[in-house]
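Exam revision sheet. Question 4 asks you to relate a sequence to its structure. Input first:
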Amino acid sequence: MACDNADDKQYVKFLSTFQIEKFTYMFNSFFDDSNGDGLLQKEDVDALIERLSKYRGWSSGTTQYNRTHDVLYAFYDCLCDQVRQEKFCSSVAPGFDTWEEAKSVYDMSVENISLNQWLNMWGRLCRGTAGISGFPIWVSLLGIIFFEVIDRDEDGILEFDEIKNYYKGLVGVKEEDLYVVSKEGYRALTANEGYMLNKENYLFCFANFLLGRDIYGCGKYIFGVFDNREMTESYKIIYNEEDE
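Answer key, structure tokens:
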């Protein structure tokens, strides 16, 4: 992989505070799933595969189980490549203190991915990206896996009850908030029910989750657990600093 030394590698600086909140939730709730140690490892990927498969009733060896396994392991491998580039191919990567160290075998393995490395990866991928087509294919495949997990009747359309069951069974929306959040989430994801929530439209919303910089936008309801005050408050205009 080619080394890109532009701007140094603290790509988290390109994420908004709300994006950091969303990506941190995604890391903690789905990708640090086996032991909650603050590191993403193969064991966490295995735990996520089992969690998604249990929700859908996919047993080991079935087509959907194997597909989920392949996509999430591909996602993990690509994530490791991103972190490897950050650690070893950037202008801020540590150098060598001695000739002996420089001539020795250089360990470039990446097995434990921290939250900060995860955020840097998304900052790198989101910078300058306008939609799902601007991301690597493995990001789209991750969105497709979530779509297929939610689509319990496998008709290619996500209905209100499927969104509600997903919020309850996987996302962790509180029982007392479940109906209201599910109703608002389904409304936002379908543009006031003007569109069917098929795979194409879901991926549009998934891209909005990745790229949305504030609380306004359908993508927030991919998981539905974030700042939901716009459900009861009027829209607040955000002015640029130079206009104030």
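Marking note for examiners. Residues 63-88 form the longest helix (26 residues).
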